[in-house]
Amino acid sequence: MRLSHVIAVLEELYPPSWAESWDAVGLVCGDPDQEVRRVLFAVDPVAAVLDEALEWDADLIVTHHPLLLRGVHSVAATTPKGRLVHRMIVNGVALHTAHTNADRADPGVSDALARAVGLTGVLRPMVPADDDPRRGLGRIGELDAPLTLRDFTGRVAAGLPPTAWGVRAAGDPDRPVRTVAVCGGAGDSLLDTARAAGVDVYVTADLRHHPASEFAEHGGPALVDAAHWATEWPWLADAERRLVAASPEAGKLETRVSTIVTDAWSLHDEGAR
User: Fold this and answer.
1) Residue 252 is assigned to a structural domain of this protein
2) What stretch of H or E contains 183?
């Protein structure tokens, strides 16, 4: 397929118009007329992922996180991001980003997270989109049967790729949980939404001390906090499947999901016991 055709498919699955106004999604670099045979999916556009793409001879990298989220005045090879852009262009590797448009899709990032932690049946958005109540931020669903918070935390850890951050929980370890809200990535902006929804537990990433502490003090649901990268990684396989299934031509692409852990945190030490 030509790159322009692959991008057209991706933008039909994850329309750029669904992205937040501050976001930077779409084609970052690449010639629309170039041929694409191999597509690598990853969370982060970082050097290790580009190394994998070059080793595998990929023509296109599709990432969740943008490379150039904030405006820049230069992509000179004197900066880390500039070097990545130069390496991609020199080696003919295109880069496409689906970020908050993938967060709001149906299915999107939070659907994949919900399935990874054991939610079954119909899922509904925490914050439905104005034009389509099936889409939106976060997801709410149920477990097949109640679990204690302790056991559910173990299920989350088993369902997500391991990271140095691990999985943390706030709440009574023996508290029964069945109705679950999830939000892939940083989700403390939806704490009040989770409370209002009456869920038993909220799974997300990047929870800060004070909001989490105040939330627990005011009778909110239990909290489960995982690594940012880990909560978004399950979406990659879903995006891969949807691209391949989009058309007979797309079905001929070779695709791969990167398993390189690109979470920012690489060490964890619990300290003296």
Assistant:
1) no
2) strand 176-186
